[in-house]
Structures are given as structure tokens and as C-alpha cells.
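Budget justification aside, the reviewers requested a transparent look at the raw inputs and outputs of the sequence design task funded under Objective 1. We therefore reproduce one unedited record. The lines immediately below are the C-alpha cells for a 205-residue chain.
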């Protein structure tokens, strides 16, 4: 019985250790990427377009843009869309999301980012941060899941507002009244925007 008890205790300790290591890995990944981005943005010798290119190369590997595209349509719409239109939608959405994120990142000047302790949510890791800019501050929550290629961001919340939920609401509104073709046209014409995050000046990402 003692041996069984020691085995259970060892298993428990090992499991806790693995979970802690996972959280630490996700935290360090995010910190290293954001610090690298801030370094690029602070480089006065780089043109704005060159900064945008370097920032894209830094952050793209930690986002699962394809999954984010799928999540914005959700179980309600995604299964019924033909494969070729799923691909077109994903391509358009990824471009929209990348451009939005990179444009907002490039607005950074002398902001300070505080990383708070991560939270384990089932098999995911949520990492809260606080962005301090002059006299204002706001919260950002990065949501990670562990893919076969490592930790990836699948959603971001700014001041409690989910990027995925915001887009999903807009897409659902279009699809309830029209078709996937209508949504694709709106994406192509850039008639879809993240109005919640885009209109509030303190929400600069």
C-alpha cells in the first residue's frame, strides 16, 4: 500500500510539474516575442514599412490564424461552407487580422507592458498583461493552446472584449441575412472591421 501511495504522490507531483513547465514555456514565449517587437518599434533607423515586416516575422509564428478564422464562424456556420470557400474565407480573414494587429502594434511608442501570472484553463494557458501608456492603462489577455507545433495564440481579449467573439458577431450578422459569398465580398472590400478595438484610442492593439 505504501508503494502505491508513493506512486500516486510521484504521479501527482510530476503532473503539477509538467503543468507548471507548460505555463512557464507559454509565458516566456510571449515575453520574448513582445520584447522583440518593442525593440524593433524603438529602432529609429527603420522605416515604418520595414518595422511592420519585422514585427510580422516575429509574431506570425505564435498565432494560429487558421484556427482563429474557423472559430469566428463557429459550429453554427463553418461545417456548412464548401471547402473552396472555407479556404478563401480563411485567406481573407488571416490577411485582415494580420493587418489589423500589425497596424495597431506599429502605433506603439513608449508604452510599458506588465506581464502578470498566467492562468491554466483546462489544457490552455491564459496570460494577462497590462499596457501602460502615459496616463492610461488597459488590460490584454492572450489565450494560448498547445498545438503539435508548440504554444499558439487562438484569441486575444482587450479590456475583456474577445477579438474572436467580436468578429463572430459581425460574421453571424452577415450570414443570417445573406450567404458566405456576401461575407467574402465584405472581407475583400474591407467592410468588416473590429469596431470595438478599432474605435477606442486606449485599446491600441
Amino acid at each position: 500500500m505504501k508503494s502505491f501511495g508513493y506512486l500516486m504522490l510521484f504521479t501527482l507531483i510530476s503532473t503539477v510539474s509538467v503543468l507548471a513547465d507548460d505555463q512557464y514555456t507559454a509565458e516566456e514565449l510571449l515575453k520574448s516575442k513582445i520584447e522583440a517587437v518593442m525593440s524593433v518599434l524603438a529602432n529609429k533607423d527603420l522605416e515604418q514599412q520595414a518595422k511592420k515586416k519585422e514585427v510580422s516575422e516575429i509574431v506570425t509564428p505564435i498565432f494560429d490564424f487558421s484556427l482563429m478564422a474557423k472559430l469566428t464562424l463557429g459550429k453554427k456556420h463553418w461545417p456548412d461552407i464548401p471547402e473552396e470557400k472555407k479556404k478563401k474565407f480563411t485567406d481573407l480573414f488571416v490577411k485582415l487580422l494580420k493587418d489589423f494587429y500589425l497596424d495597431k502594434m506599429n502605433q506603439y511608442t513608449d508604452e510599458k507592458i506588465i506581464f502578470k501570472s498566467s492562468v491554466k484553463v483546462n489544457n490552455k494557458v491564459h496570460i494577462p498583461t497590462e499596457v501602460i501608456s502615459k496616463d492610461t492603462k488597459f488590460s490584454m489577455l492572450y489565450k494560448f493552446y498547445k498545438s503539435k507545433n508548440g504554444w499558439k495564440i487562438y484569441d486575444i481579449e482587450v479590456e475583456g472584449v474577445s477579438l474572436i467573439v467580436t468578429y463572430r458577431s459581425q460574421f453571424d450578422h452577415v450570414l443570417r441575412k445573406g450567404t458566405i459569398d456576401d461575407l467574402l465580398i465584405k472581407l475583400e472590400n474591407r467592410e468588416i472591421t473590429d469596431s470595438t478595438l478599432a474605435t477606442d484610442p486606449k485599446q491600441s492593439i
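Residues 2-41 form the longest helix (40 residues). The chain has one domain: 2-199. Computational costs for records of this kind are itemized in the attached budget.
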